[in-house]
Structures are given as structure tokens and as C-alpha cells.
Amino acid sequence: MSIEVQGKNILVTGANRGIGKAITESFLKHGAAKVYAAVRNPDSAVSLIEEHGDQVVPVKVDLTDESTIKAAAETASDVDIVVNNAGVLKTTSPLADDAIDALKFEIDVNVCGLIRVAQAFAPVLKANRGGAFVQLNSVASLKNFSDFATYSASKAASYSITQALRDKLAKQGTQVLSVHPGPIATDMGHDAGFDEIADPPELVSEGIIAALQAGQFHLFPDTMAKQFGEAYASFAENVVEANIAEG
Ligand SMILES: NC(=O)c1ccc[n+]([C@@H]2O[C@H](COP(=O)([O-])OP(=O)(O)OC[C@H]3O[C@@H](n4cnc5c(N)ncnc54)[C@H](OP(=O)(O)O)[C@@H]3O)[C@@H](O)[C@H]2O)c1
């Protein structure tokens, strides 16, 4: 499967800042008709609207609140590509007092949020000839980083769910893309201590457009991510992307 961005309607969760803002701007630069900026606070999309006019349509989405996601799926009923980008990170070791609270918080947003978005938008994408579903996972989906151990666990879980979505959504012609950035220069990257090693968010957003055109399932867009991708390529091809019977 392969999808061109030109003329398409896109929805991006967490479009107001960081990687989500870069994704919004890259899609518009490559000829998207419209981007639904799915944000917790519609006021946070004002600068995007000032720059791009009515090509940016704010919709309220909180990944922890199913009702907002269902309402967004009704508003954005003409969407062709859904990008579930929004996510949260706590810097927590498994031995810290707040580890379990951090894990529950990250699972609710990063994993249950993904499931909520997929459940609400799968029928919309099906009605619109399949389209594509993009999930922002991480290199931390593949290796646990002990200073943000619970985040890594949540991103491993979201990657696992993304694999299931690839299988299930293929039946309705929806392409699924799993994106695995390394350190990226955003607020989250700053909080994780990545300032010295971070790559720009445009590497991720431009990579997504190329990967959708190429019909890839995995994307490793930046310097560190490419190292992971090379080491992981054989397992990805021969196990994750292989057609192994489930019994
Ligand atoms: N930066 C990195 O180094 C890096 C590396 C690998 C993967 N990633 C992944 O890439 C994605 C984007 O990360 P980022 O670096 O751009 O993060 P960021 O700068 O911290 O921005 C996070 C975005 O998620 C939104 N968000 C948080 N909780 C939400 C909720 N409950 N409902 C809806 N939106 C919510 C935020 O909205 P508000 O403005 O309202 O808070 C904001 O738009 C995340 O999934 C992250 O895990 C990032």
C-alpha cells in the first residue's frame, strides 16, 4: 500500500507543538487539502490558523477522554490520514516511588489513547477508501531507557498495538505506519535531557510523508533512530512484518 499526501485531509493529534506541529506544516507544504489540528485546547492552534488560514481546522481531542475523540471522528468525517502523535513522558526509574503512577498515566495517554483513536477513526478511514493511520512510537519501543523506564514500557506497548492495527486495518485497505524517532528537539526532548543530541522535528515529519509514499510499516527517521533501524531490520522483516500464522 502507498498513499500520496497531495489533496488529502489529515488529522494530527497534538498538532499545536513539537513533532505534531512539524507534521502539520510538512503535510500542508506537500499539498494536503486540510489538517484537523486535534488539540486539548483549541486556542493552542491559533498560530497555525494565523499562518495557514482555513486549511487548519482545530478540533478538541484529549486522548484520555473517549467522548472528545468520538466527537472529533464525527467532525473530521472526510479524513484520509490519521496521525496519532500526542504523547507524554515522565522521567522515572522503576525503583522510584512514583513509578507505578507514572506508568498508569503514560499507559492511559500513550496506549489507551492510541486504542481510542484507532477505534473511533477506523470506520471513518474505511468509509474514505482506506487511507492511512500513523502512530508515533519511539526507539524506546525497542529498548528500555532506565531514566524514563515507564515511558519506554508504554511505547513498547503502543508499538505492539500498532502491529495489531497493521494486521486488522489491512483488511479495510488502511495503510499503517509505525514511526520510531530517537531524540528530537521538542519540549519532551528537552524534558528527557536530549538538548545536546536532538535532531529537528522536520526529520520526522518529512520522513513520514516519504514513508507513506513508499508504503513502509516502520520508519526510523533521525540519526539515532537509523542506527536502531539498521540493527533491527532483519527482525522487522523476518518476524514483525512476516506473515506468521497465529495458529
Ligand atoms: N521528542 C522526542 O525526542 C521523541 C522521541 C521519540 C518519540 N517521540 C514521540 O513523538 C510524539 C510527539 O512528541 P513531542 O516531542 O512533540 O512531544 P511534546 O513536545 O511534549 O508535545 C506533546 C504533544 O502531545 C499533546 N498531549 C499531551 N497529552 C495529551 C492528551 N492527553 N491528549 C491530547 N494531546 C495531548 C500536547 O498537548 P498540550 O500542548 O495540550 O500539552 C502536545 O501537543 C509523542 O508520542 C512522543 O512520545 C518523541
Word description of this protein:
The longest helix has 29 residues, at 99-127. The model has no long low-confidence stretch (mean pLDDT 97). This protein is globular. Helix 4 runs parallel beside helix 5. Helix 1 (18-29) links the parallel strand 1 (9-13) and strand 2 (34-39). The protein has one domain (9-240): Rossmann fold (3-Layer(aba) Sandwich), CATH 3.40.50.720. 47% of the residues lie in helices and 13% in strands. Strands 3-2-1-4-5-6-7 form a seven-stranded parallel sheet, with helices on both faces. The protein has eight helices and seven strands. The protein has 247 residues and is α/β, with parallel strands linked by helices. The protein binds NADP nicotinamide-adenine-dinucleotide phosphate. The site of NADP nicotinamide-adenine-dinucleotide phosphate has 29 residues, from helix 1 and helix 6.
Structural class estimated from helices and strands: alpha/beta
User: CATH topology, anyone?
Assistant: Rossmann fold
User: What does the largest sheet look like?
Assistant: 7 strands, parallel
Q: Identify the CATH class.
A: Alpha Beta
Tally of strands: 7
Helix content: 40-55%
How confident is the prediction overall: mean pLDDT?
97
Query: For this entry, what is the oligomeric state of its chains?
Result: single chain
Give the full name of the CATH homologous superfamily: NAD(P)-binding Rossmann-like Domain
The molecules bound to the chains, other than polymers, are: NADP nicotinamide-adenine-dinucleotide phosphate
What topology, given as strand order, has the largest sheet?
A: 3-2-1-4-5-6-7
What is the end-to-end distance?
26 Å
CATH architecture: 3-Layer(aba) Sandwich
The number of distinct structural domains comes to 1
Count of DSSP H/I helices = 8
Please compute the radius of gyration using only Cα atoms.
Answer: 17 Å
List low-confidence stretches.
Answer: none
H/E topology pattern: EHEHEHEHEHEHHEH
Strand fraction: 5-15%
